[in-house]
Amino acid sequence: MATIRYTVPGLERGDAEKVVELLQNRLHALNDLQLTLKHAHWNVIGPNFIAVHEMLDPQVDGVRNMVDAVAERIATLGGSPNGTPGSLVRERTWDDYSLGRDDSIAHLAALNLVYDGVIADHRTQIAKTESLDPVTQDLLITQASELEQFQWFVRAHLENSDGSLNSQSAGTETGAADAAR
What we know:
- The protein is mostly helical.
- The chain has a single domain, classed as Ferritin, core subunit, four-helix bundle (Ferritin, Up-down Bundle).
- Helix content is about 70%, strand content about 0%.
- The protein has helices spanning about 15-45, 50-75, 85-90, 105-130, 135-155, 175-180; strands spanning about 45, 100-105.
- Helix 4 crosses helix 6 (about 175-180).
- The protein starts with 12 loop residues before the first helix and ends with a helix.
- About 35% of the residues are buried.
C-alpha cells in the first residue's frame, strides 16, 4: 500500500492508512458479493426462479452502491482504491462462489453463507473503526444494516415453520445447497 500524503482534518495519517487498509478489504468483499449475487441471478432455476431472480437484482444494485461509497471513502482519506479483478482475486481471503446453474433454494442457501461471511467481517471492521474513524464506522454500520436486510430476504426462503433454517448446520456453500434441496 502506498503511503498516504494527506487525509481528512482531525485524522492522523497513520490512522488513515489503517482505515484505508481495512476499507480496501471491504471493497474487495463487496465487489465479490455483487458479482456473486449477479452470478446467482443468472444461474438460478426451478419453481421459485422468478421470485429469486427478481429479488437479487436490487441486492446487486444496493451492493454496487456500497462499493462506490467505500471506494470514495478510501479516496477521501487520501488512499487509492483498487477495484481491479486481479487485485480482488490476489488479496481476498475467501474461496470463489461454488455453485453454477442450480435450483433457486440451493443458491439461496449458499448465498446465506456468503452473507454470513461478509456481514461478520463488516462487524469486525466496525469494531476496529470505533476509535480510529467514526465517520468510516458510520458508513460500515449503515452498510451492515442493509446487508442484514438482504440476508433476511434470502433467509425467508429457507426458513422452516419452527423458525429454523433448513441449511443452518452446513459449513460450506455446497453443503448448504445440498441441505436446502
